[in-house]
Amino acid sequence: MDSVTNRIHDFKSNASIIVKSFNSEYKKTPLRIKVIDAFIVYALLTAAIQFLYMLCVGTFPFNSFLSGFFCSLGFFVLSVSLRMQVDPSSTEFKGLLPERAYADFVFCGCLLFLVVWNFMG
Amino acid sequence: MIRWGITLLTLSICYRLSRTDEVFTTEDLKALRNVVLSRAGSSGDFGASAKDAYFGSGTLTLLGPMEKAQKGVVCRVASTQLASDAVDLEMAYYASQILGTAGCGDAKAEAQAEKVAVAALESGVNGIRSAYYAVSTLAALGRTAPAKALDSALQLLQKLKASKGRLRDTPKGAASLTATAHGYLIAAAAQRIGTIGSQHLPAVESLLSGIPQVLETAAGKGFLSDAHDDALEAITYFVQGIEATCSDECNLDKSQLAEVAKLLASARRVGSVQDAYYVLSGLSLLTSTGKLPKPVAISLLSASVPSSSPQVDVVVQDFKGNPVAVHGVEGGVSKKTKGNKKALTFVSKGKGSYQASLSGLDIGLGTFEVDVAAIEEGSRAKVASATFTVALTGRVEVPEATLTVKRTDTNVVQKKKSLSHPAMLDKAMDVDANSQLKVAFTVSFPGNAQPFTPQQVFISLKSRVSGAMVLVAAKAAQSSPNDYTATLGPSTIAKQIGTQGGLFDATLSIGDVALAEALVWPLGAVSVSHAPAGEGTAAPGQPPPTAAQLQSAPKPEIQHMFRQPDKRPPAVVSLAFAALSATPLLFLAIRLSQLGVNIKGFPSGTAATYALAFHGGLASILVLYTVFWLRLSLIDTFLPLAGLSLFTFWTGFKALSHHARADIKKE
Amino acid sequence: MAFSLRLFSVVKYESVIHEFDPYFNFRVTIYLTKQGFYNLWNWFDDRTWYPLGRVIGGTVYPGLIWTAGVMFKVLHAFNIPINVQEVCVFTAPLFSAFCSLAAYLLVKEIRGRGAGLTAAAFMAMVPSYISRSVAGSFDNEGVAIFALVFVFFLYVKALNTGSLAWSSAAALAYLYMVASWGGYSFIINLLPIHCLASIFTGRLTAKLYIAYAPLIILGTLEAASIPVVGFNAVLMSEHFGAFFAFGILHAALAIRYIKDILPVKAYNAAKTLVLTSGVVLMSGILLLVLFYVMSSPTFGWTGRSLSLLDPTYASKYIPIIASVSEHQPPAWPSYFTDLQAASILMPAGLIALFWPLTPASLFLILYACTAVYFSGVMVRLMLVLAPAACCLAGIALHEAIATLFKGVHAARDEQESKPLKEDVKAKKPSKPAKAGFWSILPGFSETGRPIPRDAAIVGLLGLAAVALFYTWHSIWVSAEMYSAPSIVMQTRGGDGSIHIFDDFREGYAWLRYNTPEDAIVASWWDYGYQTTAMANRTVLVDNNTWNNTHIATVGRAMASPEKQAWEIYRALDVTHVLVIFGGFIGYPSDDINKFLWMVRIGGGVFPDIKEKDFLGEGGYRVDTKAGKALLDCLMYKLSYYRYAEASLMTTGQLGFDRVRNVQIGKMDISLEYFEEVFTSEHWMVRIYKVLDRPARDGKLPNPRSSRGKIRRGSS
């Protein structure tokens, strides 16, 4: 018993440490990234709700569900990509202007929405 | 309607059988001649082919003496062929046959043919056909061959003897029969052109003594009746062979020979000169010369025998159609289904014609099987036999018919009328839904003592309105089989043609193969009324649909069942979830406001217009998507989309480059 | 070059469409140009699969048809009057040229311009690809290979630049690929493999994510928009790999992100947390997926994919897939014929790619390896291998040439400075080919020991010879082997003269002009597309083999005795039966040789047909020792009807079959329920009419019928 409670305690303390340090570290990220993060979380939440709907109710208009779900996922993916590209701490995209990244993002977004709308039926 | 009934009756009578097509007629001979002449061509030289010329001239000779001009042409063909440098054995054979049959008298050509034949014999022939060609060439020219040369040909007979006359099985059966026949012909020809060495005599003798056996085998294996390729050739050579070798002791079965002749005769419609020759040569040998027993055929003159003079006439002919007198004809007659045979006595009525009377035999009307067989003079063997179907025909009479209308529920007779034969009802009889019409009558067959049931005894009702017809078979009573009754009512009519009412013409019809004339007696008019219309009857003024019409009427349209619609949740749930999925938007707004996002950074000056236009472009693209979703097709969308994207791309490029420059400047 | 090489067929024959499938594509294209884009989606074709019909829009890969349709429209917009057939004939060569460009771009992206050029040169001439893209071969593969290479190029480009624009371009190209060919599943499986390989070899970069993730999301949605794929894009097992890799990628990225952002201690704690929960989550999902997969009979795989993974699957369960020669494993020589020099240079290129191993080159390595495996399973997939082989060969050749030239130059330099040393170097034994091969190992050539000049020159000459030989071989192959449309045949006579057999078109033209508009033609499914396209008549079955039972019914009819076959055909309203017979001129792929497949396919559905009844002594034969059922069946009768006499005239032997080199077992064939109405000049196409009622007089004894009758001409 003791060990289990210990474990749980450990776990809890670990979790709290993680959350705390994560929060403190996250504060350092620039505002621009934070905005993008907000969008990412937004997309994830939407996807999660649709998934929940699928679990509770069913998939019947399957194309609608698919397009909605994939729309959220796609937006999430694109936002993550954008975030990685404009992240100043990253070294991979030195030569890339944030504006260029944003333009790409907009272009991809347009394409994604076109496909989604086409499939939605 | 009367015509219809008669057609029905005649149709059933029409299968008269007589087997006169077994023998040749003069027309057939003419046809053969025409085939040959047409193949001979305008110049008459058979395309300068010795083979065709041989067969052609052979056929013409058999059909009668050949014209002189024709002879000359044929001779020229043979001579030319022989004069050419490369003369092979086959060509020499055909040419020499022509020289022999046409009597050309071309010594040079004859010498050439002889040279080829002798050379072939001396170098050793390599097959029975070649041997036959060589020996037969010499025989046709009337030359002799040295005994040594003959040896190689006779050697082959030993081999034939080894097979003991047994024929090989199909499909080579015809060919093996040909080979055997060639053996006979070689043996016969060899006797003429030289002497058969003593070492070959046993072989020849055993070969010849096997002829009946071969004939039997050939008949047993069906070579004589089936249409094998080359069957004609084989059979004709065989006939030629036995004709050349057989004397009386051959002892051949005439009926088997008759089978042979039948096959030859049945192949009268030939297409080539060769076949014409084979058919004619075989038949001529079987009919004209004295050496072979002559097969005969027996045929029936008429398949329908009136019971007033019940005589069966048959004629015995050879296969060229000439009547042949025989010792006698015997036969028997039996009912078609039952085998109980009664003997018939045939009396000779002139050359080849025989007659038997059926009168004393105590048989009634109907169809019978008549077996006849011709008996040969001397041996008293059956030489030809056949089975015919003969109908003994008589008359039918119905002196009187009684028509009764009865109520179905109470059995009370409402109306009754008797008619004697040709008379008709003077006014229509009424039959309503609750009553039935009964027609009763007695049939009689004058001059017929036996019980006889006609095939068709029925009453027909034909509507005067629509022309539709109802048929009701009359039933014979158990006790007296000649008393018939037919019962019909509105329900019968409704079953057959629907609920058609009004006036109908009633007719009594009786027909059978054994009735020389059918009886068709129009009885007069019957007025039918049905029960008051229930559901589903046709509109007034139109005849109700008949059963046949109902059958061909369009079936109700099949409703196609698509996939079962999927279960959908109640609208409330969906709406609730729609609202729920909007909540992250709320989160986004809160979060963004937390972060302090604003549009203060929005550029000013020229950059502002570009930025505005850019965002406007984006917004319009999204609007376009919505419109696309709601009503446009993909292709319709593409064009404005292309324009908008170009615009947005350009403004976006401008706006962002301004922004980037500003950024760099700031740094 | 690539374009002109493929025009041999047009020069040698004429501008016709080859083979079977292209005829269907051709027909659909005509429909597209006449009826427009939207009607195509909704086109229900009642000319095929009588009485079922076929929904063309939902069952066809439309990419090729769009392409041809757009080309046609564009050309007409410029007022260039051109026939649809010409467009179709020249589509494939055009796209093979594009494909060469795509190969150039791909290899350039991986290895630089020089390698790209050599790869494109290989690509232009690789016989395997030529086989599918000669002029007239209007088939999906022609454009699909281009799309395949182009998708790979864009993917690699996105991988190198990390640009979303390239990634979405790759998604668009993928859309085109999906629309063109069922082989798109190769891409959707190769990309995850590459992704996973990158992750587990520590090459996880943000660029990989940008290249991969949007492509998967966009690509799946696009694929689902193509009707023929539809929901399969998310429901079939082939696509699960992509989602799996997608999930792993996110997990890996999340771990990396957390690792970056958290201090070490917290990271360790988080790692255990994420790992435990991650494992639990993943196993749950895996279980779900497994459950789904196991619950379907084919484990959620389509039959063709299964036969790829398990080569024996098709022959066991689906005879119809195994019956297509394209679906059988290739013979070894075919690798050499189809790839030639590329197959030799390929391993060299593979090794060269390991120095240096970038994500892009890793991708090409994986591509090559999987392609080699798949081509080993199905001949058809040799096509997928071809681009990989060409790229590798191009790289190998380029490296070899570069190294050798370095040797030449280096030797010249040395010659100027130290002429004495030359002797020592020249003594070094090295075979030219070996030198070329080994020298591409950078480690070998960069250690300061350049190849001696003589050897280098010899090596260069050797490589040039290889290249020349390859070119010569490709040209020969394309001219001789692959340009032959199976619809027009050509043989060389003993004196070198060329005979052209145009029986197919003769037969189809006869059908088109001599049968009623609503005639229904039964034939084996190979000829279905051609009959609908060229003769414009309704057929029972065609090359789109979606309904096995229907095909089995036709197979059963062909394998039944005449009367039963007639009943089957009457039940299906068939008016004409078409058989292909090669015995007269020795055309081996005729219906008699395909007959065993009919029996097998028919027997797969109708157990009363047993293959062993049709086998004679020692296997399948048509002579007198053939199986009894074979001698009685309809196919045999229709093929050899009246043949015995005809062969007497050509071969001098009664009923001698020139394909099987035997005398047929039954000479005297009479037909009671079918009437011969047409036989083409060389007897290849024979068409029979199905009679309303049996012809009674067909059986009358008719001795020597063949001599008496005038032979019916082949009008």
Structural domain tally of chain B: 4
Mean pLDDT across the residues of chain A is 81
Our estimate of the beta-strand percent of chain B is 15-25%
Measured by DSSP, the beta-strand proportion of chain A falls in: under 5%
Using the 3D structure, state the CATH architecture of the largest domain in chain B.
Answer: Alpha/alpha barrel
Summarize, please.
The complex is a heterotrimer of chains A (about 120), B (about 675) and C (about 725). With about 120 residues, chain A is an all-alpha fold.
Helix and strand topology:
The complex is a heterotrimer of chains A (121), B (667) and C (715).
Chain A: H1 2-26, H2 31-57, H3 62-86, H4 98-120
Helix pairs in contact in A: 2-3, 3-4
Chain B: H1 2-13, H2 26-40, H3 50-63, H4 68-83, H5 89-102, H6 107-122, H7 128-141, H8 147-162, H9 173-193, H10 201-209, H11 211-220, H12 231-245, H13 254-266, H14 273-287, E1 296-300, E2 304-306, E3 311-318, E4 328-335, E5 342-348, E6 353-357, E7 366-375, E8 382-393, E9 400-407, E10 413-420, E11 429-431, E12 435-442, E13 456-463, E14 469-473, E15 475-476, E16 483-488, H15 490-497, E17 502-511, E18 519-528, H16 547-552, H17 571-595, H18 606-630, H19 634-666
Helix pairs in contact in B: 2-3, 3-4, 3-5, 3-14, 4-5, 4-6, 5-6, 5-7, 6-7, 7-8, 7-9, 8-9, 8-10, 9-12, 12-14, 13-14, 18-19
Chain C: H1 2-5, H2 8-12, H3 21-35, H4 37-41, E1 44-45, E2 54-55, H5 56-59, H6 63-77, H7 84-111, H8 113-125, H9 127-133, H10 140-161, H11 164-180, H12 184-200, H13 206-225, H14 232-235, H15 240-261, H16 264-295, H17 303-309, H18 313-317, H19 319-322, H20 332-339, H21 341-352, H22 359-377, H23 382-417, H24 421-427, H25 432-439, H26 442-445, H27 453-480, E3 489-492, E4 498-501, H28 503-514, E5 520-522, H29 528-535, E6 538-539, H30 548-559, H31 562-571, E7 576-580, H32 591-605, H33 628-632, H34 634-640, H35 643-650, E8 656-657, E9 662-663, E10 674-679, E11 685-690, H36 705-708
Parallel strand pairs in C: 5-6, 5-7
Antiparallel strand pairs in C: 1-2, 3-4, 7-11, 8-9, 10-11
